[in-house]
Design a protein that fits this description.
The protein is α/β, with parallel strands linked by helices and 190 residues long. It has one domain: Phosphoglycerate mutase-like (Rossmann fold, 3-Layer(aba) Sandwich), CATH 3.40.50. Helix content is 36%, strand content 18%. The chain has seven helices and six strands; from the N terminus they run E-H-H-E-H-E-H-H-E-H-H-E-E. It has helices at residues 14-18, 31-46, 60-69, 100-103, 115-130, 144-154, 158-163; strands at residues 3-9, 53-56, 75-76, 137-142, 170-176, 179-186. The chain has a six-stranded mixed beta sheet. It is globular and about 45 Å long. The model has no long low-confidence stretch (mean pLDDT 97).
Length: 190
């Protein structure tokens, strides 16, 4: 039986505007971030998309985004948190590595995670979620790095990365026979 996962990034935050590295540290949604989440909620309503279950990263920015999209109960889950950047948390984005390949081990020297750890964590967590009974249509609100690394576990992410993992973009995955396939990415213009 084919199931659907709607994996989306949270709305814009204060740290996004300030160009600060935001992994496990957190900052609030901006007014634009609130608007982005409301627009995503309208997209789901307009297209008559409903969810059996909803999940959020434990980060406030994701919980707030999800609560603006739907008033249904949801589960906070650590497995879909953003990558941990160690000592670089809250620092300027200019300290980030330049390419996805470099990110595989770059943050380890600062006490952070490797991107392969994030990839494996996201794949396991989302597979476990989609394997549950009565999980036919699932919303999960996560982060750009986590969404990118999950996509990297499924397919070559190069083309989608070029288009950007914008705030509140929605990755729509089909899930069948223990396998995810990317159907579509919704990127609203703001």
């Amino acid at each position: 039986m084919k199931k659907t996962l709607y994996l989306m990034r949270h709305g814009q935050t204060m740290f996004n505007v300030q160009k600060k590295i935001q992994g496990w540290c957190d900052s609030p949604l901006t007014e634009l971030g609130i608007h982005q989440a409301q627009v995503a909620g309208e997209y789901f309503k307009k297209n008559h998309i409903t969810f059996d279950h909803a999940y959020s990263s434990t980060s406030e920015r994701c919980c707030d985004t999800l609560e603006l999209i739907t008033d249904m109960p949801y589960t906070r889950i650590k497995g879909i948190k953003e990558m941990f950047y160690g000592e670089l948390e809250g620092e300027s984005e200019r300290l980030n590595c330049a390419t996805p390949k470099e990110c595989e081990t770059y943050y380890l020297q600062f006490g952070g995670e490797s991107s392969n750890t994030v990839r494996d964590r996201m794949l396991k967590t989302l597979t476990d979620i989609m394997e549950k009974d009565d999980h036919e249509s699932v919303l999960a609100v996560s982060h750009s790095g986590a969404c990118f690394n999950f996509l990297r576990a499924i397919q070559d992410p190069t083309e989608e990365l070029k288009k950007g993992i914008t705030n509140c973009c929605i990755f729509i995955y089909d899930y069948e026979d223990n396998h995810f396939s990317l159907r579509e990415v919704i990127r609203h213009q703001f």
